[in-house]
Amino acid sequence: MKVSVTCIPCFIRQLSEVIGIVSKDNDFQLSLFKETLRELSQLPLSQLKPPEVAKILHNFIKQRSGVSDPYAEIKKRSNEFAKTLIKELEGYIKDSKDPFETSMRLAIAGNIIDYGQAGEVNNLVVKKSIDDSLNARLDTELIRCLYHDASKANHILYLADNAGEIYFDKLFLQRIPSNSITVALRGAPIINDATMQDAIEAGINRICKVIDTGDSTPGIILKDCSKEFVDAFLGADIIISKGQGNYETLSDIEDKKIYFLFKIKCVAVAKDTGHKLGETVILCNKR
After folding, report:
1. Does the N-terminal or the C-terminal CB of the chain have fewer CB atoms within 10 Å?
2. Residues 58 and 78 in one domain
3. Distance in angstroms (rounded) separating the CA atoms of residues 267 and 275
4. CA gap 147, 82 in Å, rounded
5. Do 60 and 112 lie in a common domain?
6. What are the percentages of helix, strand and coil residues in the chain, rounded to 5?
């Protein structure tokens, strides 16, 4: 999915937010904002996917500000908040008739914890996301296909998205019918995306193999990823992709079966998928 004109306001909002995090000096903020806008104006936008642009701009701001992980505290708060919800989430799963589907719906609910799209979320927003996801009218046939494909797969690659959300993912990972799941994290800090540190803190490494992409793109650009990740990607029988950034970068892949689980958070993705803004979705590139 390439950049469209509707992506530009989101880029501008992200720039304003991250610059406000890396410095409280108004003159420096304005100077850095102008510099970054110049950088944006020089990019071949029609040739890039939105997460590629995000990587370039965020890395530019990191370099100019000297702050290597602007969202470190936000990620920490997201993880701490998600931990407080675990018992409640486990209760939903325990009481459900279909633990696989319920844990999958909860994993999608956790995708609301996305500073790159929605800003820092609060308890009410997450609780609403949980309720919406549990009651969303999803493609039940596609859910059955995912369960069937997972149970038959020799290897599954699970692409994580955000810190905090990773705790929701863990509950789903424990109920995927496979003993061979590799979970991939971002290779370096970018926005509030989950890195290896977040996965280890959540205990993902105790239930699955964990690797990183070798790249800081908030999505998957295979040419920029490590050999370890590319080998895992190519060797997977199915890929479970969490989050909008992963969808934006992988929606045009045709030679791997990919299930996309996420919340639709922008007009561009809503248009690309044919779904409505705010919807909870499960999609697949091959039916």
Report:
1. C
2. no
3. 10
4. 25
5. no
6. 55, 10, 30
- pLDDT band at residue 120 under the 50/70/90 scheme: low
Out of 40, 65, 90, a domain closes at 65
Cβ atoms within 10 Å of 84's Cβ, excluding its own: 10
pTM above 0.85?
A: yes
| Spatial separation of the C-alpha atoms in residues 76 and 74, rounded to whole Å | 5
DSSP conformation class of 204: G
pLDDT digits (tens, 9 = 90+) for 235-269: 999 999 999 999 999 999 999 999 999 999 999 99
If you average pLDDT over residues 147-160, what whole number do you get?
A: 98
SS3 37: helix
Same domain, 132 and 204: yes
Range of the domain at 43: 5-65
Count CA atoms within 13 Å of residue 168 on its CB side: 32
Domain limit, last residue, from 65, 81, 108: 65
Q: Are residues 32 and 99 in the same domain?
A: no
C-alpha dihedral sign at 205, 208, 213, 214: positive
Q: 98 and 227, same structural domain?
A: yes
Amino acid found at 24: K
> Which residue reads 């325990």 in tokens?
94
Confidence of residue 124 (pLDDT cuts 50, 70, 90): confident
